[in-house]
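Complex 356.
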Amino acid sequence: MNELNALVDSAHAAFGQAATPADLENAKALFLGKAGHITSLMKELSALSVDEKKARGAAINLAKQAIESALNARRQALADSELLAQLQAEALDVSLPGRRRGHGGLHPVSLTLERIEAIFGSMGFDVADGPEIETDWFNFTALNTPQDHPARSMHDTFYVEGGSSTAPHLLRTHTSPMQIRHAVQHVKRYRAGAQASSEGLFSGDMPEIRVIAPGRTYRVDSDATHSPMFHQCEGLWVGDNISFKDLKFVFTDFCRSFFESDDLMLRFRPSFFPFTEPSAEIDIRFQTGPLAGRWLEVAGSGQVHPNVIRNMGLEPERYIGFAFGMGPDRLTMLRYGVSDLRLFFDGDIRFLSQFE
Ligand code: PHE
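Predicted structure with phenylalanine bound:
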């Protein structure tokens, strides 16, 4: 009988060592399977006498029952610990802080555009918006830009499908086409019934044109300070007697408000644009801070060329004004001390979230 006890003990041990249900089924086969220990003990019974068979058979049956109950106990234990592990894995730690809903913020360039609109708004400027796909007429020709001007070349301008070979469609290279678009609308509104000159140009009374036009612009250009898509903000003030001194006053006032500092100087550096005469590049210089002492270009500007005034439908003998085109991306870089323009357009949330 000892040998049967030893068998039960070793079954206990084997089942105890089985770490998974599959291990346990393998261990079961060893003891209770067709080729297992119990089966072979049963086979040996045939050699015994009837009385011996009875006693021996009963003993083997007891051992078998003991092994089966050890098996069931182990099965239950494995199932219990599996359930426990699952419960632990899915456990909720109710003491953890909650997850907040993320909150968005405006892009730094959008913040700049909002600022520009607010400051010029306070000076009585309207805000106009126009198409990014332009015609050759509005982007160049109406702005007094000659057919052979280098800006028209494929190296600078993205041409798109549509239009014709003599009047192609393109992605606007600046916001200046809005000078023409806005002025034409403005003049149309006020000229109704009024007398036109022989050329069809309007010289009657109308409220001044005072508008800014911010938006996206495109040029074939890409490095740390140029992106193929960038922003501009056009400014236009046309009236009876609007001169260069008004441009100087308005732009200086704008820069002081924008940078919240009186500690900056402006320089109007003579330049050339086909649509203004005279023309000037506007540079600013901070007196203090990390950029102190350096002249930085922020806008092109000038007195609106008489040919452009004509293309607005206005009589240049009566109407005169100034225009400027500034770079909001550049203004954003200066305001926040960002040295690479491309950071604005990479969409990296770690960079952008600093401006919330
Ligand atoms: N459109 C010019 C540019 O893109 C800027 C400008 C605008 C210059 C208005 C003069 C007047 O560089």
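Residues 174, 176, 273, 276, 279, 300-302, 323-325 surround phenylalanine (CB under 6 Å).
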